[in-house]
Amino acid sequence: MPATPLPRKRLALRRLTATAAVLAATAGTLTAATATAGANDRGHGHDRGRTVDVQLLSFNDLHGNLEPPQGSSGTVTETQADGTTKAIPAGGVEYLANALRTARKGHDYSITAAAGDMIGASPLMSGLFHDEPTIEALNKLDLDVTSVGNHEFDEGRAELTRMQRGGCHPKEGCFEKGKTYKGAQFPYLAANVLDEKTGKPILKPYTVWEHKGVKVGFIGVTTKNTPDVVTAEGVKGLKFADEVETINKYAKELDRQGVKSIVALLHEGGMPASGSYNFDCDTPGAGAGISGPIVDIAKKVTPKVDALVTGHTHQAYACTIPDPSGAPRTVTSAASFGRLYTDTTLTYDRRTKDIVRTTVKTSAAAHAKNPRTANHVVDRTQPKAADMTALIDRWKKLAAPVANKPVGYISADINGRGSEAYEQPLGDVITDAQLEALSPAAKGGAQIAFMNPGGVRSDLAYKASGSEGDGVVTYGEAFTVQPFTNLMQVKDLTGAQVIAALQQQVSGPNEAQPKILQVSSGLTYTLDLTKKGADRVVASSVKLGGTAIDPAKTYRVAGNEFLMGGGDGFPAFKEGKNKLVAASDLDVFIAYLTAHSSKDAPLAPPAANRITIVK
């Protein structure tokens, strides 16, 4: 199995071309009968008559995870034939590179695409160097194209532009002596990210892949809710347009240029009914096993688009959601952190220049034998790609003086991102750290601390990730949990506003997909899932230190700057008064680990019993 990057000559053959106008061709999708006849001509990407199979390899939400993720964030769940499930260790760019290179073998027409959040919220090895290591790795992976995601805006527009075009960091300079960062060798697409003044996309809205006369257009968009999940500074001067309207606009433009085969790269997603990567989300019918924003979007995106590669929710699915004309259309997502990749076969008709999409659903048995779209595990039993190992070793050496410093000790895994519970044990640790740091009068006088669940980016794993020893928490591991270094804030909120914030977890924009806040010690309440909307939070049950919250009383509330700015659909926090700005969330977290643990007395996982769940 190859362990070196594909020759650049091959990359040139798979080049992405500018969208120069070409002669219009007759549009249309083949009928089921014609598609069946054409199937006899299909090879593994080779020219055999009228149709040719184009391989589309895709992934999403890498978040700079070049090394295998720790804890449960580094596994995928697989359902077995007997109905039981097992966890499979997965992820790591050394294995992802090998898996993609192996999958490409025998495919003359192969495209590798991504659906955003390649960078941002990254572990220390990449985040410390403003994600230059990740872009370098993606270049070596021969990534052809990606959409932007919300996390591409964590450091703002100017930094995203630098990621694309290259150049050393404006403040920290070049990280390696004698080397200048070269930028991404693939286009970042941002069709719905507009400059507020000009109304034009800040990066290319689409691009066209071309090889031996086969052309496939790619349109890239991110969630229109990006301003709600990124700091205000990160999206300053930008406007995020509706995903469907944008995709339909540029699909029409591509169609006018004669590009009939179109794929949308969309950083927005859904929630399958099962957490297993091999769950059939087309059971009992097409798309019946998935919910969330992507379902409505997929049903509205023009039939000119032949497939949707999605992300954002970190879920795994390969569904068939009918387009507005009723024709079947593939919608996929490959979980996150490089643990999976999706392999989709697009059958390209040379006469119509369109993708064949039959109106007859493949039977379950036939699909299992020869799936046209499937997610594959990036397992760690396969060989590592030697060039990726060398890349990791190089950047790890640069990061080592900072990354390997011990900052705490734990007695067992403390799950955060990998926890499936509403109240995460690591979320309790983080909020307790914030409350302790900001409770002194001079530091803000905090009585309550809240943490947005999406800001807990990983677990604290007991097993050593390097030579530090089991149970040792390094600075790099703590950074992976809290990579944003958001400044902490303390504000005055009334009891009514505190209750309103809790209700906003399960109402308004968060009703369909609840965002359950992590809460500090002393705050307790009941979440009744048998009810609807805001009523799920039992207002009378909200107590601080065993005493009911008084709606008219003022409380000092702590949270990171993103949450206190109303992020993640919590406008109640934005209404707070008498703001005090404090240390970063990372500094507060590390200080707590250091103060509350030692080699002889490690920190134990908390009970996670602050939120009572009624089902």
Q: Hey, roughly how much beta strand do the residues contain?
A: 15-25%
Could you name the CATH class of the largest domain?
A: Alpha Beta
CATH architecture of the largest domain: 4-Layer Sandwich
Oligomer: single chain
Question: What is the CATH topology of the largest domain?
Answer: Purple Acid Phosphatase, chain A, domain 2
Could you tell me the number of beta strands? Answer: 31
In the sheet with the most strands, the strands line up as 1-9-10-12-15-17-16
Averaged pLDDT: 91
Question: Could you list some keywords that capture this structure?
Answer:
alpha/beta, 5'-nucleotidase,  domain 2, seven-stranded mixed β-sheet, 31 strands, globular
Structure overview:
GO terms for molecular function: 5'-nucleotidase activity; nucleotide binding; UDP-sugar diphosphatase activity. This is Bifunctional metallophosphatase/5'-nucleotidase. Pfam families: 5_nucleotid_C (PF02872), Metallophos (PF00149). Residues 1-32 form the signal peptide. This protein is of the alpha/beta class. It has two domains: 51-386, Metallo-dependent phosphatases (Purple Acid Phosphatase, chain A, domain 2, 4-Layer Sandwich); 405-613, Alpha-Beta Complex (5'-nucleotidase,  domain 2). The strands form eight sheets. It has a seven-stranded mixed beta sheet with strand order 1-9-10-12-15-17-16, with helices on one face. Helix 5 runs antiparallel to helix 11. The relative contact order is 0.13. Mean pLDDT is 91; it is low at 1-46 and 359-370.
